[in-house]
Amino acid sequence: MQQISDITPLREIRRKWQIQGKTIAFVPTMGNLHDGHLNLVRQAKSKADIVVVSIFVNPLQFGPDEDLEAYPRTLEQDKAALQALGVDVLFTPHASAIYSRGLEKQTFVEVPGLSYMICGASRPGHFRGVATIVCKLFNMVQPNMAFFGEKDFQQLQVIKAMVTDLSMNLTIYGVPTMRESDGLAMSSRNHYLTAKEREKAPIMYARLCELKQKMESGRRDFSLMVDQVKRDLDEAGLKVDYVEVRSIDTLLSPGHEETELVILAAAFLGKTRLIDNIQVSLKA
Ligand code: PAF
User: Fold this and answer.
1) Where does the chain bind beta-alanine (predicted)?
2) pTM for the whole structure
């Protein structure tokens, strides 16, 4: 595995692969890789000749009071894991090269609508930061395909919309969430949880699963059921940001006839913001 930090050598190697007719899969990450990330890499390897992974903790997607400084950075450990999976190139750009004109002056990409709701309402500017860095990384790596976890479901929808709106020439794959044995969605931010909080954390997914079951068994009083989930989480000591039932494609509130839905939730457990989601099909 080759580690590249500058854009010029990345472009050179990219050109060689193109001449050789190789297909390129890309997995953008912020590092501190867990099995969820490694699963994205496995999927990428199964679909393309070459796999590029990037590690870049993107300052543009963190709010002023968020965890940019504290975000776990474990480069040596990450490198070993990627090497073992047979990744071709690890791209580790520096912020000064990515945002060479400064964060204030940076041109940005914003997907309206989708970026302002749900997580976007609680984290203003977050999805603009995500869309901008992903667009820039796509321009640098020029992959044929890119892989994102469904854990960040709204992020995945924002990126798909950006690719459609800007006529980008690549395929986006969403990969199902990897979970710990007790159901907690894998996340780099789980490291922030104290032992007590870690014990409580699986309750969010457990309640989402129960809600899904009730919806699939025919109950349609979504807002009453959502309120109950919020109360349960609250009683368990979580500070709920949102629990929402949305249409899977638009992330808007579903009309009566819609059958493909997603339940999305975010809550603070101590200082840690947990997010999760589960897809529901009412077709059965
Ligand atoms: O999901 C992430 O880790 C980040 O939001 C991403 C897509 C790598 C952009 O910085």
Assistant:
1) 61
2) 0.97
Exposed e or buried b per residue across 83-101, where buried means at least 16 C-beta atoms within 10 angstroms of its C-beta:
eeeebbbbbbbeeeebbee
Which pLDDT score, from 0 to 100, does residue 283 have?
84
Q: Which of the residues are catalytic?
A: 37
* Average pLDDT of the segment spanning 40-55: 98
Residues flagged as binding site for ATP: 30-37, 149-152, 186-189
Domains and CATH numbers, the chain: 2-175 (3.40.50.620), 188-278 (3.30.1300.10)
Which residue among 26, 30, 177 has the greatest number of ligand 1 atoms within 8 angstroms of its CB, and so is best to mutate? Answer: 30
Q: How far is the CA of 222 from the centre of ligand 1 (A)?
A: 31
Cα-based distances in Å from 131 to 2, 95, 124, 166 = 26, 16, 13, 11
Residue 29 CA, ligand 1 centroid: distance in Å: 5
Separation of alpha carbons 92 and 252, rounded Å = 36
